[in-house]
Amino acid sequence: MPLDETWWKNARDIAGDRVLSDPAALEPYGHDEYAREEYRCLPAAVVKPIDTDEVAAVVALCRRSKVPLTVRGGGTGLAAGCVPAPGGIVLSTELMNRVIDADPDNCTITVQAGVTLRKLYEEVRAMSLYFPPHPGDEGAFVGGAVAANAGGARAVKYGTVRRFVLGLQVVLASGEILDLGGKLIKSSTGYHLADLMIGSEGTLGVITQVTLSLLAAVGSVQTLVAPFATVKGAIEAVPPMLRRGVVPCAVEFVEHSAVHCAERLLSKTWPARQGTASLMVILDGRNDDDTMAQAEAIGGALEQSGALDVLLTDQEAKQAEILEIRSMLYEAIRPVTVDIFDVCVPRAQVAPHVEFIHELERRFAIPLPSFGHAADGNVHTHCLHSPLLDDGAFGGKLPGWRETSEKVRDEIYRDVVRRRGVISGEHGIGLVKKPYFFESVSPALLSTMKAIKKALDPDGIMNPGKIFD
Predict the structure, then answer these.
(1) In whole angstroms, what is the distance from residue 4 CA to residue 195 CA?
(2) What is the DSSP letter of 430?
């Protein structure tokens, strides 16, 4: 149903000219960064509140009017999680970008949901403290990172965003405001409802404010790059490496076919030229002696596991270049990407899962370059409609790629479930993975989740259609 005049009047009473209606202005809010266009949907309106009270007023208006409401952060998601429902509106948190409280004594920072990760890192560095999670795109908003329980490369040592959330301010579907948690390290006082909101993808409430715990800043960072003859060899080197008693900040595996694309995009060079895959290991510690001792232990383990070389750098500029190449892998192959699979399996199952991916490549004759977080089990496989050439360029479109990609998706998710994994490690379910979500969880778990959704959002207005119907 189209929005009526009463809705428009009430919305403009709340947010004035921060209510958008022009189709050209609405278009950017109809999609996230997911590559496939069939999930796009133009919102009926976009509202840009500036504080929690305005959010509460907009949510209450939508509940009275039975208008679907989808919260949007930076729009950097990869599961169509912030795509509005047909006839629904988008509540954009982009103007809710203030730092509320920087508290070095309690090692916390409280920010509005629309603060970007880039701004967050800058504020935390100014406090001489450290916020470890780094999901990748620093244009993402803090509220969105919490709503998706974002992870990133550093999860192997520091965990996901969930580990650092101390408090949330949330607007429920009723328009009521909840203050959950705070600056407390411990609490056994009733249900821990903040945990319920983390990773809920905006289906249970609107996160408007976040309090995060911070750590002491690290004194030294070093990066190792170790090439291997095969990606299987690279991944199988990870468990014995971790048994050396050193917990790296990050352990990434990359296939060189995708690396060549990022090199071409950035006009930069990956340090390893041998083999078909590399491990990138980031180490952090109190000082250079600490990280060097870690590097010696890790490097020795990698050599014993068949690394063709172990390259070490402590130069900040060179480390930044290596990390940029890794971070831009998806952007580099995005023009030919049909689908991206963000799965997580037990660590020991990463190598056999990637071997299964290569079997699918051979069986279906379609490129499936994979990379990801080897030490936490999070694998990102990309289904492409064109082959990757040796120089990082793309070949022509493959015949029947669309039908083939559907078969590949089914096979990958089935393999993940067989290995007791999950179909999303850090991107969420959204619209994209919803059909497979039902097959990957038990009926009892699904019914419990639906009961929670019904209790907190009885009219079904909060980001409807995501995770489950």
Answers:
(1) 37
(2) T
| Alpha-carbon span 244 to 11, nearest angstrom | 59
Token pair of 35 as six digits: 């590559």
Q: What is the distance of C-alpha 350 from the center of its chain?
A: 19
One-letter identity of residue 104 = P
From CA 427, how far away is CA 199, in angstroms rounded? 9
Nearby residues of 297 by Cβ (< 8 Å), 6 or more positions away: 244, 245, 246
pLDDT at 439: 86
> For residue 422, which of 364, 349, 316, 331 has the smallest C-alpha distance?
349
Task: Check: CB of residue 221 under 8 Å from CB of residue 249.
Answer: yes
Residues 6+ apart with CB under 8 A from 247: 156, 157
Q: Which two tokens stand for residue 65?
A: 């009017």
Half-sphere exposure of 394 (CA within 13 A, CB side): 17
Q: Give 124-160 pLDDT, tens digit per residue.
A: 999 999 999 998 889 999 999 999 999 999 999 999 9
Q: What is the distance between the alpha carbons of residues 329 and 374, in angstroms, rounded to a whole number?
A: 16
Sheet strands side by side (includes 108-112): 99-103, 108-112, 206-213, 165-171, 177-181
Identify the pLDDT of residue 1. 64
Q: Which of 459, 437, 465 is nearest to 83 (CA)?
A: 465
- Please give the backbone phi and psi of residue 139, each rounded to the nearest 5 degrees, phi first: -80, -10
| Residue among 8, 6, 43, 15 at smallest CA distance from 28 | 43
C-beta of residue 302 within 8 angstroms of C-beta of residue 224: yes
Domains of the chain: 99-216 (3.30.465.10), 220-329 (3.30.70.2190), 336-425 (3.30.70.2740)
| Amino acid (1-letter code) at residue 300 | G
- The per-residue pLDDT for range 206-217, each reduced to its tens digit, is 999 999 999 999
